[in-house]
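Thread title: Can someone regenerate the structure for this chain?

I was given the following input by a collaborator and told the matching structure tokens would be attached. They weren't. Posting the sequence so someone can regenerate them.
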Amino acid sequence: MRMRYKKAGFIAVLYLLKIQVVFGISDRSLNDVVGGPLSYDRIVDRLIKENLYFTAIPFMKEILSGRQQIRNSNRFEGNIEKLIAEVGVRQFETLPDSILSRVGAPIIYYIRAKKYFRRGQYRKALQALRSNFGDSSIGPFVSMLRGSIYSITGQSKKAIWAFEECSEGSLGFMTEKGIRWKQYQITKDYCLIGKARALFELRRYEEASSTYLDLDKSSPVWPEILFEEAWTSFYQKNYNRTLGKIVSYKAPVFQNFFIPEFSILEALSYMELCLWSDAKKSIDAFYKEYIRSARQLGRFLKQKGNDYRYFYKAARARKKRRVPGGMLYNRLLRSVIFSPGYQELNQTLLRGNRELSLIRGSRSAKAKRILLPGLKDTLNLQKRLLGSYVRKELLVKYSLLRKAFTQMSYIKLEILKRKKSDLYYQIKNKTRERGDIRYLRRNEKQYFWDFNGEFWADELGDYVFALPSKCVVK
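Best answer:
Regenerated them for you:
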């Protein structure tokens, strides 16, 4: 996505700025801000103190564009860190590299690293992260980004170290409840997941499984890892636990999540247990549910193209009702708007809208004329960012669904191959019951419940099948 950086268009007017009261700022305080030579960093400083973060963004972008020299680098760095903490990094990621490269502040290096990361330029991203971040509040985010790069580039041991550093750093900043507390909480949880993924890549499946279990089920990111836990169990050849994870996914609490690979994993698990009819049922059910709707979804997404405004409005409308596009599209759209990423972007937009209402309610016509244009541009950009995020997530889910069809075809062929192989062996008739406690496998962090058929809250993610393998011993 390419965004064009717009100049605020009201810089010259600031020299004539004489407002008695703006959002509770006294006349004396206002004169301190704009009196004498124009100072953007002082204006930003004042707006941030009044919690007008989105209103301050156009002025901060003017500073970054080099129109005025930064007089106090410590104050500038502190202010931009506060802005990013409140409005997110994406507002500044849209700035051209030529602007960001002019400033040597650590937070700017982090922004540049994020841009490189999204482009897949991992070496440049790591170079940008070599800056000294010290005890900066963005330290945990820097460590998480390093860990992600190490994971993608196959440096799993380094990734584990970076994710552990991220988790410990996040805990250090979780001192009080609020928006920032939630940011560090989610960052800590994602770094825990990152560590588990790195352990999985190293084939240390037992450690990976144990690390996943350390994530609290109250975490907003916990539902995302159920699928990864299932794969870990599968590679441990604990197919009953894998099937149990899949059953948990079908519980009502997960209705807002769409993970087509669960159907693949279910079919594979039944196949490894040589339960051919069960595997076939899983495959047939998958094709029946998605074959037509997937084609419809593909045509619909192609038709909408890069219309970020449409995707922003569609996500907003989906919170209240279904939107045109088909049942599968509505299901995927609902899964996107309940994701932590969307929730964070949307919360910042709501904060910006509150600022907009504040300014519109001002009695000063000059304040509206000076502040509203830049703020409106900033909020329109935030809406486009939301629309871009929604579109990207929908395309990712659609791509996973298409891959699932291919993988299901391979599984069908593999089942036929294995069934044919079994016919060449004479096997003794054995009576094996489906379901027996002696087939359960668990570790010290997993428990056994004897329940009456309901899902208990503690059982979600821990339910286990007890099926014996029907494979022929050759």
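Residues 365-422 form the longest helix (58 residues).
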